[in-house]
Specification:
The chain is α/β, with parallel strands linked by helices. It folds into two domains: 279 residues, TIM Barrel; 110 residues, no CATH class. It is built from twelve helices and 17 strands. The protein has an eight-stranded parallel sheet with strand order 1-12-9-8-7-4-3-2. Strands 15-14-13-17-16 form a five-stranded antiparallel sheet, covered by helices on one side. A two-stranded antiparallel ribbon has the order 5-6. The longest helix is centred in the first third of the chain and has 19 residues. The termini are far apart. The structure holds fe (ii) ion (2 copies). The site of one fe (ii) ion (FE2) has 4 residues, from loops.
């Protein structure tokens, strides 16, 4: 169902501005659905390699107040030095875009030095003092409230999440970013009843809301959030129930990552229309990380310090043949393009030490562009003079290979 364009008020619902390639798609989908959101959320990780004033120009046509959403800041687990550097960088973005607020997550990416495949739920019993101190610094440096998104729990410690967030909010004055689908996933996994959130939701009105799609992990059967599919009925019903009893500031639909224009317009219209009418550590993420991120079944020993994108290169053995080396280089480049490490560079050149084999991985720099992979190049584009990780040389640059 496509709703007729509205001419007067702005609307609550908008797609997540997830990536550069999607920006024109999001605008066309909103126009097709007749929606004019008053707030749009920029997924900063996928834009952070760009100059903030250039991004301000890119989002200006949406005609909406911007909020910044961050996943990989790792603000709970980085060193004080790294946290300080991140905040200095984020402050420049805040000055350029003047977002209504900045939002982040209560999760961590590493366990004993190993980057896990998906963010892990923190240990609520032991974290309050440290997290509260980090949140206070985060807010003071950005001079605005920090919103924290609830985690889609899969393990027993999820039961403590509402009480932890309430205590954190009481201490720091931070705010809740309520992801309906994350909360639903936690309930479906038997970790936290939706009703446990009621007091916090009542106190946090008007609510900043996310909605996405419930999916299922193919490997372990856990319920998970799947932002690559279409809107699901259970999330929509939970959202409608929420809106019936609470004031909502805005809703970000996160099912926009890979949607094409027509499907996205339909989902946004459906959300808009629906609102109008009415404690044990979980080791499975580590197993998934080994399979998907490190391309191995066993934890590499020792795990030396490395960036996330270098994970596929870490576990390579002496027995690796050309096919495996190439596959690991490709996977490292894919992860680099996703910018989990928030690098500001636009080009990665990667060369094997053992073979005349190189790749270039180039991030998008303008709206409508997509990232590029150049290679395999049967040559050594780098040498020992460049940075090295295990049996590879690499260089991160702000140049282009195909210019
Ligand atoms: Fe998020
Ligand atoms: Fe979310």
């Amino acid at each position: 169902m496509i709703i007729s364009p509205v001419s007067d008020a702005t609307t609550l619902v908008s797609p997540s501005l997830n990536n550069l390639a999607g920006l024109p798609v999001y605008r066309r989908a909103l126009a097709r659905a007749g929606l004019r959101p008053r707030v749009v959320e920029l997924f900063w990780d996928n834009f952070c390699h760009l100059e903030p004033y250039a991004v301000r120009e890119m989002v200006a046509p949406f005609g909406a107040r911007v909020v910044l959403h961050i996943s990989n800041s790792r603000f709970i687990e980085t060193s004080q030095l790294a946290f300080d550097a991140y905040l200095t960088r984020m402050r420049a973005w805040v000055d350029a875009l003047d977002p209504a607020f900045v939002s982040d997550h209560l999760y961590q990416f590493t366990l004993d030095g190993l980057y896990c495949d998906a963010p892990l739920e923190i240990d609520y019993e032991r974290s309050l003092d440290h997290v509260a101190a980090r949140v206070a610094t985060y807010q003071a440096r950005l001079d605005r409230p920090l919103y924290l998104e609830n985690y889609a729990s899969t393990c027993p410690r999820g039961a403590s999440q509402p009480a932890f967030l309430a205590a954190l909010i009481a201490r720091t004055g931070c705010r809740l970013l309520w992801d309906v689908t994350n909360a639903l996933v936690a309930e479906l996994n038997g970790r936290c009843d939706l009703r446990a959130w009621a007091p916090l939701l009542a106190a946090q009105q008007p609510l900043a809301v996310h909605v996405s799609e419930v999916g299922r992990d193919r490997l372990d059967g856990d319920f998970r959030v799947d932002p690559h599919g279409a809107l699901d009925r259970s999330s929509l019903h939970a959202l409608v129930a929420l809106a019936r009893d609470h004031a909502i500031d805005h809703i970000v639909y996160e099912g926009s990552i890979t949607s094409e224009e027509g499907a996205l317009a339909t989902d946004l219209s459906e959300i808009h229309g629906a609102l109008e009418r009415p404690l044990r550590p979980d080791v499975r993420p580590i197993a998934r990380a080994l399979r998907r991120r490190y391309l191995t079944e066993h934890a590499p020993q020792p795990v030396e310090p490395h960036a996330i994108w270098q994970a596929p290169l870490v576990g390579m053995t002496d027995a690796a043949d050309r096919e495996e080396i190439e596959a690991r280089m490709r996977r490292a480049g894919e992860m680099w393009l996703e910018n989990h490490d928030l690098s500001p560079r636009s080009l990665l050149v990667l060369t094997s030490r053992d073979l005349p084999l190189s790749f270039g991985f180039q991030r998008a720099r303008a709206a409508g562009e997509t990232p590029k992979t150049i290679g395999p190049v049967p040559d050594r584009l780098l040498s020992e003079a460049d940075d090295a990780i295990y049996r590879f040389w690499f260089s991160e640059l702000n140049e282009t290979l195909d210019g």
